[in-house]
Amino acid sequence: MTNALEYNSERSQLIIPEYGRHIQKMVEHAVAIEDDEERNKVAKSIISVMGNMNPHLRDVADFQHKLWDQLFIISDFKLDVESPFPKPVPEKLAEHPEPLGYPQNFPKYRFYGNNIKRMIDEAKKYEEGPLKEALVLAIANHMKKSFLNWNRETVDDEVIFEHLRELSDGALNLKNSDEDLTDSSNLIRGKKKYKNTPKRSGGRGKPRKRH
User: Fold this and answer.
1) 137 occurs within a structural domain
2) Is the pTM of this model over 0.85?
3) What's the pLDDT band for 203 if we cut at 50, 70, 90?
4) Three-class SS of residue 182?
């Protein structure tokens, strides 16, 4: 008796690898069944097996719909059975989704982070007045702190004001104001708090005084 070996190069490509080759072979078998009633019966059995392989998705909305869609996809849309859901269209699945826009519009200033850009966009919507002035100044101080954490130990306020103007498309401009941002040493003090603290040797604590 001769056992026929099936090499990987001879196997059909797995269309949905998550289900494995045995499911794909079951689907290929169902496609080849000539009797309509038997083919529908086998298709429902395959759906049942596929569902048992994903028990954590049973409560997900449209779970059965997803299974039937996947069944048709695995069959390369060759399976002719009665489905409780509309049969998926190959051309629709082949469509590429619209590319998502990146929130960071100024990659050269990525060290400020996207939250800063969102805060700036919100500040632009505020009416002119003390509240907006306080918010813009707070944003500028946060920008200065982010700049110092990323870049160096000091920076001129004019640099931050220019970045703020650029990120706000010219809407927020502190370049001609009399405002001063928080001193650099105070903004980065937290980083150096424990830098030069001497370590105690051996954990013995302070030496005793002699009498």
Assistant:
1) yes
2) no
3) very low
4) coil
